[in-house]
Automatic annotation (TrEMBL), chain B:
HAMAP family: Malonate_deCO2ase_dsu (MF_00710). This is Malonate decarboxylase acyl carrier protein. GO terms for cellular component: cytoplasm. It comes from Mesorhizobium helmanticense. It comes from the Bacteria. It holds the Pfam family ACP. NCBIfam families: malonate_delta. Covalently binds the prosthetic group of malonate decarboxylase.
From TrEMBL, chain C:
One of its GO terms (molecular function) is propionyl-CoA carboxylase activity. This is Biotin-independent malonate decarboxylase subunit beta. PROSITE patterns: COA_CT_NTER (PS50980). GO terms for biological process: carbohydrate metabolic process.
Length: 611, 105, 309
């Protein structure tokens, strides 16, 4: 193709349009020209046919006749089509739907950010408005399918295929759409896995991102909500895709450049601020005595003996209870400085009392949390902050940190089977797993030692090995019964049934049983590292499954044997009286008390303010 | 509503002199337990009223374990259940016994 | 327990306590005697029809005890049971207590009402509505007979519907930040008038309109307590023996007070506007300031202290 394209690449969209036309004219034969346009339109890398078959043969040892920049040509065509709606990179919000119709092509892979926290909600609504006769069959590749508009795309036929990580509130709607044949499901990934595939076989053609503000060059400031954006944009922009950003406001100078402007093609100032879900706010007033008991067990039975310093917590009330009894219960045990000092963790408001009491040295975060901005800005010793002072998050980095640089993951789940496999899918909900499968797995590529890791490794290996090798602590903390008295412990995971009914190649499992080291319930702790046979493992699980069918079907004698070997530890074995598990142990008993702990720097979301 | 009546013979009475006590409240996922020292010292009767059907076996197991552990002789125990989970039931029963042992309410 | 630096009182929260826990710590230790206790099993005969569990006290605890050595009658609603609602049994227990005080001069001359109620129980609505009407009349008659009736509001259910009306007939109201009073509850307003009119899930909005700080600032409550049982006890003790005689002069003064409030605040369209009109220097900081700062603020606000009841 004409070398003129190299200069065109960097140019202004309006000039690009002219250049593309010129380049097209230079292609001699009409048939070739049509082919070239068609190829570019599809955005697929295919060989450009030679003018004559004979000449191909004649040049078989020379430079290839293939066109090497079809994706770039496609990009230029799209930019040209969009040029009439843009002044520089700026597009009015009123033209956003037309802009999307100009740059998104049928069958494109589209990332509509779209994670579990921040939402490009304005662009999502505009994409749902495009003409489905023109823009159709999109392949959505994004970590979070959270908004109703995300599902509308599939209902309208605008999108067809889906690869994602987390669905949260839309879990039931996704299951319905799957059963109705509206969605072709690729896979339910972990975050790291989906981000990795952005660079291998799920590279987006178009990324619709979201930022707090932008300047005229397209430099984006995302503040604490940087989250997935850097990885999404890098994959899209460097593979000739189009990046469009929804922003709250346009400014002359952004406080900090989270994404450089030369990776951003269009900026739309949305009429209202983007939505952020306060996903990590847990009201201490809702923490139950049972959850406090489980939290005491986890600290006394796991954090203390292993000396767990580097860790990740899930987002449930059980782990919120752990965070809230660090400055009280764990302090009484004399564990300050010896456990829970370094976190890969979102800025959980329930961690504030532990931070303020000097427990926590460092926290790196996947994303932000609504209302925590000012608090984090005032605690740069604890949080990662930019030169502008505001916190900086990055989901890909933090997931890697959680995978390789922590010794313990602890989180909850909805179902656990007799082998310890867990899932949050039920028969009618496809919830997605988010980051739990990364954090909740033993990384076999790890090569640095720590006391906690080595102790777990010794327990797992028993007497059988001479080669020291570590093991990650992967802890499931659950109550034996969940909402509406549904049992947490089951013979078979619902997700296996679901996979059959939907003909999925891979049954969705959040954490595989062989990765789980401990299960904590109000009945006690099962240490699966110490189990030597599948039968032992099954009885260890039954032994902490309480009054569920699975629990009541235990072999009482086998369970007592396991207890004698400390494979199972009851509260009384750890010196914990269940009647001591009461709310006075919580360092903060309400959202307001969290705000007080923070010196009023934490600004709770309105829906949590009962004052 | 489902009503269950269970009777047990215990190893002996629970200590203390309190005549009766009530713990917990009837709310979603919670229950109230009324304990009255009105039976012979080796007897325990438990009456349960619950809107949740089909959990008879679980109730029997939870209460039997409690009786084995606490030996609540002399107690007439009456439960109004709001759909509590077994762990909450066990906790309230133990809280009730502790209150009875502590003396007058 | 090491709790140095804990930036708030560690004693029992009123909001989070059950009605029985509140009574046990509000009154002098061990002084409470319950009338018609749970062991008598006087519970709702209606709830089983709806496949709903009953409570042995029907969510209403009545009795007598001592506060700072002085004898009092008490009634406490359990807000967690059916929203603390007025129903046939719970209403009758409350009514019986107040009428007894009205009719028998030998009984304590102070009644404490620990309100925690969304109003009338829907499953027993006729009996509940009647109970509210009879309770209001009985309170007025008891006050006329020289009984002081003090409402304490700080529970999960607040004091809405019939409980809101009941509170308004009392001699005095003690309220905490978490407490709310009103007639029509936020969810009902949203259902009938739309989310644009009132978003019941916007808790900050709900509390700014109905919550304890607003009520105290505009004179809708007479005393402000921190969210601890100890603070409610202290605030109630301070009100004991202070009730004005319930006569024509008091009623006239009350009407004048209400007319003045409408004149000062009737044009405001938000809580912040009201606080501003009352002369609060930084009205937006009012919700988030700590309790001592708020108490200091109230002392300076004209209108908060002009109670005439």
């Amino acid at each position: 193709m004409p070398s003129a394209n190299h200069s065109v690449y960097e140019a202004h969209p309006v000039r690009v349009a002219a250049a593309v036309e010129e380049a097209a004219h230079k292609v001699g034969e009409a048939t070739e020209q049509e082919n070239c346009k068609a190829v570019a339109r599809e955005g697929a890398a295919v060989f450009r046919p030679g003018a004559r078959g004979s000449s191909m043969n004649a040049r078989s040892n020379g430079p290839s006749q293939r066109a090497w920049d079809t994706a770039r040509q496609s990009r230029e065509q799209r930019l040209a089509a969009a040029a009439r709606y843009a002044r520089g990179k700026l597009v009015s919000h009123e033209d956003a739907t037309k802009l999307l119709e100009a740059v998104v092509r049928a069958g494109d892979r589209v990332c509509l950010e779209g994670d579990n926290q921040k939402q490009a909600d304005f662009l999502a609504a505009r994409l749902a408005e495009v003409d489905p006769a023109v823009v159709k069959g999109l392949h959505i590749v994004q970590s979070g399918v959270v908004l109703a508009e995300h599902l509308d795309l599939f209902e309208a036929g605008i999108a067809k295929r889906l690869d994602f990580s987390y669905s949260g509130p839309q879990g039931a709607a996704i299951a319905r759409a799957l059963k109705a044949g509206k969605i072709e499901l690729g896979a339910v990934h972990t975050y790291l896995e989906l981000f990795s595939r952005y660079f291998v076989d799920l590279t987006p053609h178009v990324a619709l991102t979201v930022a707090r503000c932008a300047d005229r060059e397209g430099n984006l400031y995302m503040g604490p909500n940087t989250e997935d954006s850097p990885v999404v944009i890098e994959a899209t922009a460097f593979k000739q895709g189009i990046v469009i950003a929804q922003v709250n406001e346009l400014v002359d100078k952004v406080p900090r450049v989270d994404v450089p402007g030369d990776r951003v093609d269009f900026v739309v100032a949305a009429p209202s601020n983007f939505y952020v879900e306060p996903l990590f706010t847990r009201d201490p007033a809702q923490i139950t005595e049972t959850q406090i008991l489980s939290a005491m067990l986890a600290i006394k039975g796991i954090y203390e003996p292993y000396g767990v310093k580097r860790l990740n917590h899930g987002i449930g009330f059980n782990t919120a209870a752990i965070e809230l009894i660090l400055p009280t219960y764990a302090e009484r045990l004399g564990l300050k400085g010896r456990i829970a000092t370094h976190f890969a963790l979102n800025p959980h408001p329930t961690l504030i009392p532990a931070i303020e009491s000097g427990w926590v040295e460092q926290v790196h975060s996947f994303g932000s949390e609504v209302g925590m901005d000012d608090y984090m800005r005032a605690r740069p010793d604890i949080f990662f902050t930019g030169r502008d002072g505001s916190m900086a998050s990055n989901r890909m980095y933090c997931q890697s940190a959680g995978l390789y640089a922590t010794d313990l993951f602890i989180g909850s789940t909805l179902q656990i089977d007799l082998a310890g496999n867990s899932s949050t899918f039920t028969k009618d909900r496809i919830a997605g797993f988010g980051g739990a499968p990364n954090m909740g797995s033993d990384p076999r590529g790890r090569r640095h030692a720590s006391d906690a890791w080595l102790k777990a490794g010794r327990e797992a290996a028993g007497e059988t090995t001479s080669l020291p090798r570590g093991r990650k602590l992967v802890v499931q903390i659950v109550e034996t019964f969940g909402e509406k008295l549904s049992p947490t412990f089951v013979e078979n995971l619902d997700s296996i049934e679901l996979a059959k009914s939907l003909d999925l190649a891979l049954p969705p499992v959040m954490i595989y049983g062989d990765d789980v080291s401990h299960i904590v319930t109000e009945e006690g702790i099962a240490n699966l590292l110490l189990c030597r046979t599948p039968a032992e493992r099954e009885q260890a699980i039954r032994g902490v499954a309480g009054y569920t069918d699975v629990g009541r079907a235990r072999d009482a004698r086998a369970v007592e044997d396991l207890r004698a070997r400390k494979v199972i530890q009851r509260p009384e074995d750890l010196g914990i009286d269940p009647l001591d598990a009461n709310r006075s142990l919580l360092a903060a008993r309400s959202i307001k008390e969290l705000m007080r702990w923070s010196g009023n720097l934490y600004d709770p979301p309105r829906k949590f303010r009962n004052w | 509503m489902e009503n269950l009546k269970l009777r047990f013979t215990t190893r002996g009475p629970i200590p203390g002199t309190a005549r009766s006590t009530i713990v917990g409240v009837v709310a979603s996922g919670n229950l109230e337990v009324l304990l009255e020292r009105v039976l012979d010292q080796n007897e325990c009767a438990v009456e349960i009223a619950t809107p949740v059907r089909g959990y008879d076996d679980v109730w029997k197991a939870v209460v039997a374990d409690f009786v084995e552990r606490a030996s609540p002789g002399g107690m007439r125990i009456s439960i109004n259940d709001g759909g509590a989970r077994p762990d909450t039931v066990a906790l309230r029963l133990m809280q009730g016994v502790r209150t009875m042992e502590a003396g007058d309410e | 327990m090491s709790e140095t630096g804990r930036p708030f009182a560690a004693s029992a929260s009123w909001f989070l306590s059950t009605a029985r826990e509140r009574l046990a710590k509000l009154l002098d230790a061990g002084s409470f005697t319950e009338f018609v206790p749970p062991s008598e099993r006087v519970q709702s005969p209606h709830l089983a029809l709806f496949d709903l569990p009953a409570a042995f006290d029907d969510g209403m605890i009545v009795g007598c005890g001592r506060l700072g050595g002085k004898s009092v009658l008490v009634a406490a609603q359990e807000g967690q049971f059916m929203g603390g609602t007025f129903a046939e049994v719970s209403g009758a227990k409350l009514l019986g207590l107040i009428r007894a005080a009205r009719d028998d001069e030998k009984l304590p001359r102070t009644i404490l009402l620990l309100l925690d109620s969304g109003g009338v129980r829907l499953q027993e609505a006729n009996a509940g509505e009647l109970a509210v009407a009879e309770v209001m009349r009985a309170i007025v008659e008891a006050r006329a007979a020289g009984v002081a009736v003090i409402a304490l509001v700080g529970g999960r259910a607040g004091a809405f519907g019939g409980a809101g009306l009941t509170a308004a007939t009392c001699s005095a109201i003690v309220i905490s930040e978490q407490g709310r009073t009103g007639v029509t509850g936020p969810e009902v307003i949203e259902t009938n008038k739309g989310v644009e009119e009132f978003d019941s899930r916007d808790k900050a909005l709900v509390w700014s309109v109905t919550g304890g700080r607003t009520r105290r600032l505009i004179g809708g409550a007479d005393a402000y307590a921190e969210d601890t049982v100890a603070s409610f006890r202290e605030a109630t003790l301070a009100l004991m023996g202070k009730a004005r005689p319930f006569d024509l002069a008091t009623l006239r003064a009350e009407l004048a007070r209400l007319a003045g409030r409408v004149g000062r605040l009737g044009g405001c369209d938000s809580a912040v506007a009201m606080w501003s009109a009352l002369g609060v220097a930084d009205p937006r900081a009012t919700a988030d300031m700590d309790d001592p700062a708020f108490v200091a603020l109230v002392a300076d606000v004209k209108g908060a202290g002009d109670d005439a009841r």
